[in-house]
Structure formats: C-alpha cells, structure tokens
Amino acid sequence: MSLNDMKPDIVSGMLLQRLNDASVFVQVANTDYEGEITQYGQSVRILEIGPVTIRDYTPGGTSAITLEHLKDASKVLQINRSKYYAFTLDDADSAQARVKLLNDGITQSAWGLRDEMDAFVAGLRTDAGIAVGGTATTGADITSTNILAYFMEAARRLDETNTPTDTRWCAGPAWFTRKAGLAGIVQLTDNGSAFREGSVGRVEGFDLYTSNNVTAISTTERYPVLFGYRGSISMAVQVLSSEVVRPSTRFVDLAKGLSLYGAKVVRPNNLGVLYADYTAEAT
Q1: What is the pTM of this model?
Q2: Where are the domains of the chain?
Q3: For 208-247, how does the pLDDT look when each residue is reduced to its tens digit (9 = 90+)?
C-alpha cells in the first residue's frame, strides 16, 4: 500500500485503536459519554438523581403519604481540552519508507495524545473524597511490610461508601507496585485483566496498575496513589479529525489530527488517595 492509498478513515481508525488500547486512566475511567462529543467547549450532562427519603408507613392509617419531588443531581463534564499533531513526509523518501514513517509517526502521535490525557486525569487526585493515608505535606512511609495495610484501609473506606467491588482499581508509580510484589500480595489472574496495559495483578480486590503519570509532588518523593472504581471518574475522548493530505505548495504528505477530551471526578466519595512516601527497604 502506498502512502497516498492511506485514506483518512483508515488513519483515523489506526489512531482510535491505539488510543483505546493504551494508558491506565483511560482504561479505568467511565467513558460512556464519548459519543456525545461534537465540539470543544461542549458540556456533557451526566444524568443522576438525588437521594429519595424512606418513610414509615402505618397500615390502616388515615394520613396521606408524603410526596417528594425527585431531585436532579446531574453533573456536567466539560470538554475543555484540545490537542493536535501535525507532521510532513517529503516525496524524496521512497514510497515504502514513507509508509513506514507514516505508521511510526501516527504511533508516536497517538502515544503523545494518550499520555497527555492520562496525565490530565491523574491530576484530578485533588478531587478525591477519601483520605487513605498521609497528606500532601506529610506522606505515609510505604514499605513491603506495611503496604498491605493501606490496601486493606482503602478497601474498608470504599466499602463504607458502598463502592461497587467488581471494577475497583489502584494506580501508583512503579516503585509502589514493586513493593506490593515484594510483599507477595499481588495475585496474577488468568482472565485477561492482568494483561491490560500497566496492570500487574490484583490486591485486596483492586486491579493494580503501574502509571508513570502518578508523579511526585514537587520537590518531594511523595506520590498520590489513587484507589477507585470504574464509575469514580468520567472521561470523554473524541478524535475529531485525523487525515493525510497533499498540500498544494509543497511536495510532501501532511498527516495531522485533532482530539478533544474532558474528565471529571463524578463520585468523589468513591475515590481515595494515599499520599505515599518512597521508603527504602531495610537491608
């Protein structure tokens, strides 16, 4: 296939596939609202109702039942992020080389886009409603001997807020997941979940992920490890444009793409953060 045979819809499909298959936080966020994105600055309404009051009923009584107006507790997801890529390939390159370069360029562009998205979602840690341990100023010292206790504390706190158990996840830096491995508490699974990108297994009901976008707070070795479930964060991503074109004034092929996205912690009481300080293991 020559470069000129690479139709825009094929290129877009390649980019979409690479976006969907990659990054930790895009995997663990709820993406049910992606199909509603059409433009930058759009607001996506996430429908939700408020609590309904449960009242006593007296059989045979004469008092009328109390009617309650159903409250709208909908949340708004802002599509407020817009990122693009653009690069050219000169006709001086051979056709075969240009096809390979196109594939490599789109791969790198997709990685760059997804990494931007992933880092953005990881930065929503400040909206977590559950404190698992430590603070942004005084972290919890984590070793292989105490790490299980923090997983158990996170599970308890999420249980207390009725967080569903079937899609729970934890995302931390590489050193954190390695300490879980050293502790011997990581359970590998055979159902395929352990082979998603960044996944290393399960601990206390959490799918455990390694993410380089869980970064240290400035000038410290304190990392905000997140615990949640698939409904804690909502995210919407749309590849608005992805195409290969021939500019009329140059002998090049131009590949370019534009993506829109937004993310929001929609259930803060089902998202926990552990401010974990890297601690060397005892020798």
Answers
A1: 0.80
A2: 3-122+234-265, 132-233+268-278
A3: 999 999 999 988 899 999 999 999 999 988 877 788 888 8
> What's the chain's average pLDDT?
84
Burial degree of 101 (CB within 10 A; 0-12, 13-18, 19+)? middle
Q: 276 phi and psi, to 5 degrees?
A: -105, 125
How many CB atoms within 10 Å of residue 65? 8
CATH 3.30.2400 correct for 3-122+234-265: yes
Q: Architecture of 132-233+268-278 per CATH?
A: 2-Layer Sandwich (3.30)
The answer to whether 244 and 8 have CB atoms below 8 angstroms apart is: yes
Pairwise CA distance, residues 189 & 192, whole Å:
7
Dump pLDDT digits (tens) for 3-38. 455 555 555 555 665 565 558 888 899 888 766 677
Spatial separation of the C-alpha atoms in residues 276 and 222, rounded to whole Å: 5
Q: What H or E segment, with its residue span, contains residue 274? A: strand 272-278
* Burial track 6-18 (b if 16+ CB lie within 10 A, e otherwise): beeeebbebbbeb
